[in-house]
Amino acid sequence: MTQAAVVQYALEPLAVELRDVAVPEIGDADVLLRVGAVSVCGSDVHQAYNTHSWPVNVPVVLGHEFGGTVARAGRAVKHFREGDRVVSETAAEVCGECMLCRTGRYNLCPTRKGFGYGVDGAMASYVKVPARCLHHIPDSLPFELACLAEPHAVAYNAMCVNSTIRPGDLVVVLGPGPIGLLCARMAALAGADPLVVVGLSGDAARLETARRLGATHLVNVEQENLNDVVRGLNPLGADLVCDASGASRPLDVALALVRPDGQVTKVGWSPDLVPVNINPLVQKNVRLQGSFSHNYPVWERVIHLLDRRRTLPDAIVGLTSPLAGWREAFAAMHEGRVIKSVLVP
Ligand SMILES: [Zn+2]
Ligand SMILES: [Zn+2]
After folding, report:
1. Minimum-distance ligand to the CA of 101?
2. pTM, whole model, 2 decimals?
3. DSSP secondary structure string for all residues of 274-334
4. Strand, coil or helix: what is 13?
5. How far is the CA of 295 from the centre of ligand 2 (A)?
6. pLDDT at site 246
7. Which ligand is nearest to the CA of 117?
8. What is the pLDDT of residue 54?
9. According to the model, what pLDDT value does residue 53 have?
10. How many CB atoms lie within 10 A of CB 125?
11. Where does residue 113 rank: exposed (0-12), middle (13-18), buried (19+ CB within 10 A)?
12. How open is the CA angle 2-323-34, to the nearest 5 degrees?
């Protein structure tokens, strides 16, 4: 049996096409998932334009933000059966033996391979998923929103686990892409106020969405002096700066804006190596925190928040399309016309 799938076939710009591939065979501990919806990640777009900063095993089926219905369960699978509605975490392969795996931080396993770059992902009718990656979802949560659990989990882990936000904290989010906007929403839910979201002139629509998600101040750095805005709110600087820009350079900006004894959390990354003045890190006693992916408890939280629509997920999805429309779905995100595209295979 074959199926159509969005495949990255080479490490070159735009080496992505809709191809016929085999429906995967599953092992005893896997399920075969009928994909209900898969959202397009900034990282899928980076891979399609070959501007990513992680190793990709080509050819590979793209897509790691997905949910669906269990079509078949392997013999050793106990808690999931045919017909169950689920979403899947992204750590498709981990060693299961190292200290991080054994302490539930398997997302940081050095041998981790994720869907959509390390193993075949979900931009297809069917995807093979180890049952340990799955979470049940309530019937009240449609797949078109449930697939957003993954970027929600990235943002929740960055803002609510790896960062400390108290009600009334001045939080600045650099970069109003999908992750930046979800980080802003999580910060708002955690009580950040003021909440400053920062972008460029081309981000006008995204900044308006940030306002809907709870931002109290929007700054276009091409028109306004960000430092003046932040110092106007608190002369000492921001309690927390989240760099979700997906670039390396803004670490400089984050270290300049953060107050003494404050925190910088970096969630976006890029292949660019840039010289950065890290002296404020020491001089201001700043806590610099990287944030990568997510694990089981984070997923349970975000599924609940999504089901309750507490994160206003409808504000994020700008385009829903069948798999054949993948090219436009990617381009619309790449060009900033929509925040998030969702494919329904
Ligand atoms: Zn993602
Ligand atoms: Zn491990």
Report:
1. 2
2. 0.96
3. -----HHHHHTT-EEEE-----HHHHHHHHHHHHTTTT-GGGTEEEEEEGGGHHHHHHHHH
4. coil
5. 13
6. 87
7. 1
8. 82
9. 76
10. 18
11. middle
12. 55
Query: Residue range 53-80: average pLDDT?
Result: 95
How confident is the model at residue 201, as a pLDDT? 94
| Cβ < 5 A residues, ion ligand 2 | 94-95, 98, 101, 109
The answer to whether 36 and 343 have CB atoms below 8 angstroms apart is no
102 CA from centroid of ligand 2 (Å): 7
CA of 43 to the centre of ligand 1 (A): 6
CB atoms under 10 Å from CB of 249, counted, come to 13
pLDDT, tens digit (0-9, with 9 covering 90-100), for 247-256: 889 999 999 9
User: Could you say which DSSP state residue 54 is in?
Assistant: S
For residue 169, give both structure tokens: 């904290």
Is residue 144 within a helix (H) or strand (E), and if so which, with residue range? helix 143-146
User: Which residues have a Cβ under 8 Å from the Cβ of 99 and sit 6 or more positions away?
Assistant: none
Helix boundaries (H) for the chain = 42-48, 99-102, 143-146, 149-156, 178-189, 204-212, 226-233, 251-257, 279-283, 296-307, 326-334
Judged by its nearest atom, the ligand closest to the C-alpha of residue 64 is 1
How far is it, in rounded angstroms, from Cα 45 to Cα 336?
11
CB 339 within 8 A of CB 206: yes
With beta carbons less than 8 A apart as the criterion, state whether 279 and 134 touch: no
